[in-house]
Write a structure and sequence with these properties.
- The protein has helices at about 25-30, 35-60, 65-90, 95-110, 120, 155-170, 220-225, 230-240, 255-265, 310-320, 335-345, 365-375, 380-390, 445-450, and strands at about 125-130, 135-140, 150, 185-190, 195-200, 205-210, 245-250, 275, 295-300, 325-330, 350-355, 395-400, 405-415, 425-430, 435.
- The chain has a nine-stranded mixed beta sheet with strand order 9-8-10-11-7-12-13-14-15, sandwiched between helices.
- The longest helix has 25 residues, at about 65-90.
- It has 14 helices and 15 strands.
- It is elongated, with a radius of gyration of 25 Å.
- The chain has three domains: about 1-110, no CATH class; about 125-215, Beta-Lactamase; about 220-450, P-loop containing nucleotide triphosphate hydrolases (Rossmann fold, 3-Layer(aba) Sandwich), CATH 3.40.50.
- It is of the alpha/beta class.
Length: about 450
């Protein structure tokens, strides 16, 4: 038993209020030893009740969260001590010190942090977390062929819902809810983790968390990972500096956001970048030495009265009044596509976005559909004209059978005036590998790339 007087021992405590400052020791430690979720729930509820009573006693006095965390830690240890005494009194064996420390960290994380998810969010090898109910938990690790099954994340589905609802109410840029009346949630957690949660329309609450890189990612990093080769790096670097409008396309989990982030790091530091995302994920503003003039915009759901919603289309339209050098839409998937094309074609050259598509040539069909959502009965030839005028390059990614993410093709959108949309396959798709040089770019594009510093010309 670690306590006899209710005071807290000195331990390497997990971060309490913010995941932005990633704790190195926690990251190296990895998942804690599995503990009794029933004990955690019991102590959590006892501590939460005492915290609530203390808040009522404080009245109108504002208590900083950091101070409240400090006041709560000895309370957790006091209830842990009481639990250990109860176990001994009933003839059992008191928890070992490391087990008590694990319970302490977990209770503290559930009250002020991200609960049992912190074990995985602090693990640098974890790329995705999948929860299909409190006791069906899987993680995707970098380089692994298949997801790995993990212990339960909460004592019940209801406890899981309550945990996520606490995140929604206090961790996002705007207050959100996750309950029966609002069964869908998209938000960015502290540290850049992207969460999607849904309930009611699924048999059990389902949560997906995507874990971004916590460091700067450039094209040279993607070259080391095998996503691109040196020729592509030279080409894409010149394309960004030549202010080509670029669409990054691919299926789910192919690395679209990572590639977009790498492309943005090639943008000159003096340029004003405005990013628009459903849930902020790019995180370009975190690297002020590379991009000091960045505005990151994020959608907002309606409030309890049903007003105040800001959609991707609203933000894309709004950003055109903010004098951007480049507009970046994290993921185009609706009526904002038309405004994105407008941004690309009215002086904001060098703008970029991502689109879900199975091929580079299939992006145009996606965009046609999205534009039609925004304006009813808009003729297809009008959308095609917008597309041809606005888009210079489409970069398509895919995942190979060996789990490598690669650039599968790069096409140039020809600036023709006929019917339909025509392409040059600058880097063409090959089976089971990265794309290889195909047809030379048009003279217009080639001249722009040369001026921007392209060194290698493999065509």
């Amino acid at each position: 038993m670690s306590l006899t007087n209710g005071s807290a021992p000195t331990i390497a405590a997990a971060p309490g209020t913010s995941l932005a400052a990633l704790d190195g020791e926690q990251a190296r430690r990895g998942p804690s030893k599995p503990v009794d979720l029933g004990v955690i729930a019991e102590i959590r509820e006892q501590v939460a009740a005492e915290i609530s009573e203390a808040r009522r006693a404080d009245g109108d006095n504002v208590i900083e969260e950091q101070e409240e965390v400090a006041r709560t830690e000895p309370v957790i240890w006091r209830y842990l001590d009481a639990h250990a005494r109860s176990v001994i009194a009933s003839g059992g064996t008191a928890p070992a010190v490391d087990e008590e420390e694990a319970i302490f960290r977990r209770v503290k994380a559930e009250l002020f942090g991200l609960g049992g998810f912190e074990d995985y969010l602090f693990d640098p090898t974890v790329e995705n977390i999948f929860v299909n109910g409190a006791d069906k938990v899987f993680v995707n690790r970098s380089g692994a062929f298949a997801p790995e099954a993990m212990p339960p994340i909460a004592e019940s589905d209801q406890a899981l819902i309550e945990l996520v609802n606490r995140w929604a109410s206090r961790l996002g840029r705007t207050e959100r809810r996750f309950d029966v009346s609002n069964p869908r949630l998209d938000m960015r957690l502290p540290g850049g983790f992207r969460l999607h949660a849904i309930m009611e329309v699924t048999q059990r609450p389902t949560i997906t968390i995507r874990c971004p890189y916590h460091r700067r990612v450039g094209l040279d990093d993607l070259q080391r990972l095998g996503t691109v080769d040196p020729v592509m790096v030279d080409f894409l670097t010149a394309a960004v500096r030549a202010r080509c409008n670029i669409i990054v396309a691919g299926g789910t989990g192919t690395g679209k956001t990572t590639l977009l982030r790498a492309l943005l790091h090639e943008v000159p530091a003096h340029e004003r970048i405005i990013t628009i995302e459903d849930t902020a994920e790019l995180g370009i503003g975190s690297f002020e030495e590379d991009h000091p003039n960045v505005v990151e915009m994020e959608t907002r759901q309606a409030n309890l009265e049903g007003v105040g919603e800001l959609t991707m289309m609203d933000l894309t339209r709004e950003c055109l009044r903010m004098s951007p050098d480049r507009v970046v839409v994290g993921e185009v998937r609706g009526a904002e596509a038309l405004y994105m094309l407008k941004a690309m074609s009215q002086g904001n050259d060098g703008s970029m976005c991502t689109v879900h598509a199975n091929s580079a040539r299939g992006v145009a069909d996606r965009v046609r559909g999205y534009c039609a959502e925004g304006i009813a009965n808009i003729p297809m030839h009008v959308i095609d004209t917008f597309y041809r005028t606005a888009v210079d390059l489409v970069v398509h990614l895919r995942v190979l059978p060996d789990r490598r993410r690669v650039v599968a093709s790069i096409v140039e959108v020809e600036k023709t005036f006929g019917e339909g949309i025509h392409y040059n396959s600058v880097f063409e798709e090959v089976p089971e590998d990265r794309a290889r040089p195909g047809v030379a770019p048009s003279q217009y594009l080639l001249d722009r790339l040369r001026v921007a510093g392209m060194q290698v010309q493999p065509w």
